[in-house]
Design brief:
The structure is a homodimer of 358-residue chains. The first copy, chain A, is α+β, with helices and mostly antiparallel strands and 358 residues long. In chain A, 32% of the residues lie in helices and 22% in strands. In chain A, the strands form 6 sheets. The first copy, chain A, has a 6-stranded mixed sheet with strand order 4-3-2-1-5-6, with helices on both faces. In chain A, strand 18 and strand 19 form a beta hairpin. Chain A starts with a helix and ends in a 5-residue tail after the last strand. At the A-B interface, helix 4 and helix 7 of A face helix 4 and helix 7 of B.
């Protein structure tokens, strides 16, 4: 049995669960490596992946004997046989934050479970702590992202549209070893950059534009996330002060990120410094990164939570001046006992693209 | 109040529902045009869209006074005030196939509803029948898809990878008026084409390859879906018979598609003709298309259902020879009383790309 399923069985014992139904494909991938439609049943004596015919060959190629997972097809069982999976199980866990109400009722009837019990995202919470293999994959995703940014610094020119740059990012990732995007890239120029979640438009880059690029890729399922705010042609004086303030806070946060750091206090620190200067922190300071682009832990002022060794989180303060421009700077970092390792290594000094020669 | 919400209120009356909570963003977009996070509450006297601050401006720009929808921010209400929304409502509907078990419980507590009632996808089922505006949008999405295919016929060359072609499709859509892809394109060449759901790889196109391209875009939220199987350089003789058989069945199905046609019988007809020739129909014959790429109705042998005027569905038979090649041909069509209108108009005769001159 692999380490992750062994962990889950230990956890289930503590929660007095004799079985568990895992339906969230991200959690299934985390526990087994399987990327396929289906459901993972942790029963008293077996770990079973139930899937349909299309996936059997692929799934069996991924699994090794050490995984200790048996693959069956849905059609191997009649409706009446489902109740045998959790026979003599008093409490069976399910993922109440993933499973719909309709599926919950279906599970109740099909498996004939006495007590289908909520499990409060135990797997999502365990996913916060990354193992060596996961860290390697995230590190690689961050490396490809850095390389893509180096490419963009040369590629970006006045007159290109935000959409064209977004497409170039996607192309770069797909042609350079990534699975694809970890989320739809944000490429926001000029006053569009004042919207934290701007969608790329047909707006063309103009001299003097602030350009925010928030992007990342997936490598073997694992995500990266980075934002750089660059200048088109030259740096408008009015932006410099805000850029400096955002960068100062991003770097001060990096200095504080380590095992034991309280994310509420970290967020408050940035919030206060922004306020002192007349600005607000209007979104979270960061979030966990892994198989999903946004996952536990969330770094904001509402979350009284301390970081642990081997968590991977973003650090992404930003300031937005409505109708004018915005500045956000973001890195993905690995938390360690003594500090953090910045996995996205691209330059954060003023960057001018398509520079005007003076 | 707009037509769609008026329809919903009539339907609710029939089901003895005094209120309804709509959480599925696709259903919210269908009923209101709103594209934003939030929840739509149909109460005794009001239609309320609850959202967060980020979206208020955008949502108010979309809505007109005729919609009769009031927009509030979540923070406008204290926890205690939520119970006022459905005061004196005996039965309140919710979307049991969208809402998670955890959210179901949250709704119960927050709104203090006596009877939170399942609604069996009434909105999804109503979405099957398209109105004039919806048909216009789907028609436009299909037109852009046809234009993209015309572009691909010139663009595709021996030596390109499947991924490169997939990226070109995405670029074409984004640069030519579409919102983006309606799903990740399938570009499968040579023996990869024998997998119905192949993902584009780094495999390069070779002379003699069969090339299946299954793709579509969104236009103002509405999807198109088309597949063409083309030949690289020349047509291998062994593929012709199968191509002819698939095309014959695709066209015979087109002839039968109209109001009143039974989708089980249509699917059986194709299945039987394939069997007579020694092949199987291993996936559905088609599916509804609208705000989602796959929606009601589903055209397969298990669904004893008759089509209606103004439904939009695909017709997509395919034959797959494991380890060798596959052929699928697909159109998106509008069902009418007397027949169907094919919205994807690209050529279905043998198409050779990067033709070898002989």
């Amino acid at each position: 049995m692999n380490t992750k399923i062994r962990w889950l069985r230990e956890k289930m014992k503590l929660l007095d669960l004799q079985g568990m139904i895992i339906s969230n494909p991200v959690n299934i991938r985390y526990l087994t490596g399987i990327v396929a439609e289906g459901v993972l049943l942790i029963t008293r004596k077996e770990n079973i992946f139930l899937t349909d015919g299309r996936y059997v060959e692929e799934v069996n190629q991924i699994l090794t004997i050490d995984d200790g997972i048996i693959v069956y097809e849905f059609k191997d069982f009649s409706i009446d046989e489902y109740e045998n999976f959790f026979l003599f199980c008093e409490n069976v866990g399910f993922e109440e934050n993933y499973v719909t109400y309709a599926t919950y009722k279906e599970y109740m009837h099909k498996y004939k479970i006495n007590n289908l019990q909520e499990t409060e995202q135990i797997i999502e919470k365990q996913r916060m702590i990354k193992d060596e293999e996961e860290i390697e994959k995230i590190t690689k995703a961050c490396e490809i992202t850095d390389n893509c940014f180096a490419h963009l610094r040369e590629f970006i020119k006045v007159g290109q549209t935000e959409k064209e740059i977004a497409l170039e990012i996607e192309k770069y990732f797909k042609m350079n070893g990534a699975d694809g995007l970890s989320f739809e890239s944000i490429v926001a120029s000029g006053k569009n950059s004042s919207k934290p979640h701007a969608v790329p438009t047909d707006k063309k880059l103009e001299l003097g534009d602030v350009l925010t690029i928030d992007f990342g890729c997936k490598y073997k399922g694992y995500c990266s996330d980075m934002t750089r705010t660059v200048f088109v042609g030259y740096i408008p004086e009015e932006v410099k002060t805000i850029y400096d303030l955002v960068l100062k806070n991003e770097e001060q946060t990096l200095d504080e990120l380590k095992e034991g750091a309280n994310v509420k206090l970290l967020s408050r620190m940035v919030e206060n410094d922004f306020k002192l200067n007349g600005y607000d922190l209007i979104h979270s300071l960061g979030h966990g990164v892994g198989l999903e682009i946004h996952e536990y832990p969330y770094l904001n002022t509402k979350n009284d939570f301390c970081l642990k060794d081997n968590m991977v989180v973003t650090d992404e303060p930003g300031i937005y001046i409505p109708g004018k421009f915005g500045v956000r700077i973001e890195d993905t970092v690995l938390i360690t006992k003594s500090g953090c390792i910045n996995l996205t290594k691209s330059d954060k000094n003023y960057i001018i693209v398509d520079k005007v020669e003076t």
